[in-house]
Structure formats: structure tokens, C-alpha cells
């Protein structure tokens, strides 16, 4: 079977299996009993109806309307397939709805309407206003799309956005803004030649005018040649606005000296000879799909300095509407905007363009491994999977809506709103906020043992951008510098990040002598100390913390936990400090759950279990959460004499005698810990209300197993492990940790020990 046949079958299977289509509807409220039914439907639903009748704005409170978009089409201009009809367009519209949900958590219905008359189609769309918070018009042929959008925007009091026009125009605007920045040119000075007089082409030209391009410098061509004064073939009022009063008639005649070629037409329209006659550092946006107006390598053969974008994902600088529409709708919906105006679109452009000029996010780099993602000719616009898009773009759009007076529900604190949006993609963001705030109280120096790891480098970049901490990297400078360059990071060794080179560092003698002094009576000779300080980066980092040259060590991105723990304990386990246990925070869909001890004690004694519980309570409070600790076992409130239950009961006895100030209960099964009703049936009058938020086990295998199941099968995001008992002087992460996870551990390590006892 050919590659084309394989691709076709894979695409069909994707749509058909395991169930047809790409969407389903799920309830957001429980419907488990008669009480739920009475609230969801009759008679309880009448109360919500009456509230909305009295105040239509209450629909945003009692229904899903404020987060619901309709993608509407009549199937007359679907992708490159043309007029395939409403029904055949449904897979595309379902796909659009999936993108809304994936990238901006916006619920979406696709509505395919079998109506070719633009005015009647507009009537149908307008009649849908009570159901939706916004309308996305899609794949309606030109010039009908202009008519439909105009009528709907005039009559409807919710945003109406034709993505084929404005979404394309916004992303082209962002790419053009950055391309001109790279080329050293200005909008007001450039000559623009465009091919394609359809909805997207006209909208892009309109947007370029808003960005500063002069109308007299725009030359529009279509299949019939140049749009010029007096032309009658295939003209409409929208296209006529770009008519040039000239004797020239072809693309070949007007391409001379063009700074920007904007192609939304078809393959092969722009020839190499034409490119050779464009201005120096020409900007070529060849956006036809699947085959662009000219292939990038063909254009560069005659213009090596060309800056090129296409509509394809297999070339750099893909102009993709998904960079825009989920986020502009997110901002518009969240402020109850009545429209999406020019200011909101320009804010979207600025946000997208600024992100490309910033350091690439670690998450986007992971999604596009092997691609060049440093701002420049090959990277003009960010990637769709850059998780910062929603926070940057949506908050900018919301601000513009408020400033221009179209927001029915203004947001009082835009910074908090942006943090909330970031929290929707960075699951740890909101929960980590108290820790980050505490870490800002006093600058601390964090030494990373595995400084050559790209994840560590990206975490160091984020630490510089988001905290006041100073990263210290242990590693070979030539390796680190090469990886910094490859990743497009703004780290500068010896400037905004410190370096320890284990192969050649002036402090080497001080370090091995310190280590030997600490370990001389534990079998470590000077020769062994010298070797360790040349090769063991965890030991080097621990020595730095011991000597006061760093405040906390972060290690463990490779290797086994207890191997690292051995050196941490050797060097830093003194003056009352010793490892009490490892605590992992698992961020789940329904909230946080802490697990301990996952790594330190394989079979903890009752006294060690008490230390784990006290440390966990102390650390949980750092996150602004009041601990509710469940001691978990196969045994349930004393019903088994064997196993771990006895040690847990003994630990509870110690806590009872000491009068600790946190809530705890046990020993019990995990389901009993998490289900308050079940717990009440088994032990009426127990001392815990609601679900436990900390699970403590008397066997590391059990704790680690629960942690890994939650991470791999439950979709949990781990923060940690947090090494308890070491005064925040060291933390050992797991090899699967991400750059974001390292940033979170860095924030934990960056909090002075006085903040949590």
C-alpha cells in the first residue's frame, strides 16, 4: 500500500474509531438520583429560567452560553475542496470545534446549514443568538461571506468572527510585523503585491492597512490579472477598493521592487524570476495549500536572504489560524464582548508577535523537537502548542475590549485573569502561586547538579524570567553553551547564570578538601575526594550548599533517587538535618492530593511515620492548604493485625499523645480516605471532615505505586518530590520531570526555611 493510501486510511480511521466523529457532549453536573433530577429539570430548572427572564445577563451565570461558540458554515468554500456542501463540510467543522476546546477550553457546536443564499443564511445565524456567546463563520465563499458577516454584525449583540478572513489576517499581520522587524523595514514604506481576491486575501490587505501600509502601495492580482480601475470581470465593491489606476495588467509587471508578496491563490503563481526582481530581503508569504505559490527552497535559490512563510506545517513559519481564533474568542467571551473590533484584533497581533520574540517555551520545544525555535527568519510566529498563547493573547484581547467599551462584564484584575488562564494550561500555576510569592521575599541561589540537561537549562531560563533566584549550573561550559544556542535561550554564563565546571574550576581544591574533611572518618581518602569532586555533580552541589555558595541543591534528572540521597545526606545531613521523607504533590482534575513517603524510608518505623506526617503538614500549608492526613493501609481502623496497620496505629498513638495541630485519621483504605460518606459508615464520628488531601503510607512501594498510577493513568501532574527534613537545602527530582516541574521545585527550594518552619 502506498504512503498516500496509508495516510488516507489513517485519517479515515481517526474519524471513525473508536466511535464516529470527534465530539461528544458531557454533563457538568451530577445526575445520580431523584434530587439531582429535580434540580436539573423540573421543577428546579424553572428557577433558573425565571432569573434569566428577569435579567438576560444572568444566562452567563446559570447556563453554558457564555462559554459556547457556534461554528457555522454552508459548505461553499471548504479548505481547498471548494463547494462540497454543508453535510460534507461537517468533519471540518467538528475539527474546528475540537480546536476551540483543546486550545482555549471553549465549548462549541458545529452547525452546517444547507442554505446558499447569503441573506437567508444570515437570517438563520441571527436567530441563533439566544443559544450562543459568539459565532464563528467558516468556509463560506466570497463575496457571500462579506454579506453574511455584515448582516450578522449589524443585527447581533454577540461577537461574530469570520475566521477565514480575520483569523488569517491576524496571523499574517503578526508574521508580517516580525518579518519586517527582521528585515529592518517599516509598514509605511513597503510595497505589497498580493495574489488572491477572496475573503482571506482582502482581509489580510485590510489588516496590513491598519498596521500602516499605504493603500497606494498595494497591488492586488487574481486569476484575471491585476485589479485595476475600469476592470469589470469578476469584480465586487470590496475588491474594487484596491483597484490601481495603471496600464499594468499582470503579476509579472507589478512584482518589480516588491517588499512583501502575499499569496493566497494557488501553486506556481510566483516564479523564481519574479522573486529575483523583488526588493532586497524580500518577504514571501506563499500561503496556498497544499502547494504554495512558490516552494521555499526554490525562492531561496534566487534570493538567499528571503524571509518566507507558508501555510504548511513541514516548513518554518506556518501561518496557522489556530494561533488566533481560540484565544481571541476566549478573551471576548470572558468579558462578555458584544463584538470583536479592530482594537481587539490588533491586540491579538501584538500578543502573537511578542511571543515569537520571547524565549521559546519548554512545552512548545517538546512538542516540536528538532525544529529551530529561535526568533529570526525561520521563526517569525510562535507554535500553536505554545501554552503561553492563551494567557498573553486572551488577556490582551480582554483588555482591548474593556478599553474600547464593548465589554459587558469587565474584569477587575487583569493580571489575576492572566494567571488564571495560565493555570488552565499550566496545571500547577494557581496551586504554586503562594510558593512563588514566598520565594520572592528573598533572593536565593539554586545549584543544579545536571546543568547540561536541556530541561535544566529551560528551567533556569524560566527561573530568571519568573523569580528573583539565581541559577547555578554544574557542567562543561562548551556543552552548556552549545545547548543554550540550540534551544534559543537567553542564558549567559557568568552573567545571568553562574557556572561550575567540574573539569576545570578554580575552587576545585577547596571543594575536595571540604568533602574530604567531612568524610575523612567515613573511609574517604584524599584521592577519592579528588575523584568525586571531578565527576560527581550531586556531591559538588551539596558541597557548595555546605560552604554557603548556594542555598539549595536540585538534582536527580537522571539516576536513582537513593544514589543522590546518599551524597546529599553525607554532606548536608548534619546540625540536626536528616531526610524525613519524600512528599509528592499530585495535581488532579478535582484538586491536589499529596502522597508520602515515596522514596526515603522503605519500611518506616512509627516514629519515622510521625516525622513524615509532621513534615507533610508543614509543607502542605506552604501551598495555602489545610492538611487532612489519612494514614493508608490494607487494614481498616484496626481490623487487621498483620501488614502495615500496626505501625500506622502506633504512629497515630504518638501523634495523639503529642497533640499535634493538624487533622489526621486512620488507619484506613484509600477509598475510605477519599470518600467521607463511606468513612462515616465505617467509623461514625471520626475526626476528619470531607476527603483527605494527604495520603501517608507505611511502605514506600505503596506510596510510589499510587503516585505513579495517578501520574500515568489518572492524568496527574506531579510537583516534587519534596525532600523533607533537610531544611530546604536539597531536593531530588525524578528522571521524568519536565522543565515546568523543575521550575516548580526551584520555587519550593527558593523559599527561605523560615517561611515553613
UniProtKB/TrEMBL annotation:
Keywords: Metal-binding, Multifunctional enzyme, NADP, Oxidoreductase. NADP(+) binds at residues 78-85. It holds the Pfam family Malic_M. GO terms for biological process: malate metabolic process. Residues 165-402 form the Malic enzyme NAD-binding domain. A divalent metal cation binds at residues 138-139, 164, 289. GO terms for molecular function: acyltransferase activity; malic enzyme activity; metal ion binding; NAD binding; oxidoreductase activity, acting on the CH-OH group of donors, NAD or NADP as acceptor. The active site is at 96 (proton acceptor). InterPro entries: Aminoacid_DH-like_N_sf, Malate_Decarboxylase, Malic_N_dom, Malic_N_dom_sf, Malic_NAD-bd, Malic_NAD-bd_bact_type, ME_PTA, NAD(P)-bd_dom_sf. Residues 20-153 form the Malic enzyme N-terminal domain. SUPFAM superfamilies: Aminoacid dehydrogenase-like, N-terminal domain, Isocitrate/Isopropylmalate dehydrogenase-like, NAD(P)-binding Rossmann-fold domains. In the N-terminal section; belongs to the malic enzymes family. In the C-terminal section; belongs to the phosphate acetyltransferase and butyryltransferase family. This is NADP-dependent malic enzyme. It comes from Sulfitobacter alexandrii.
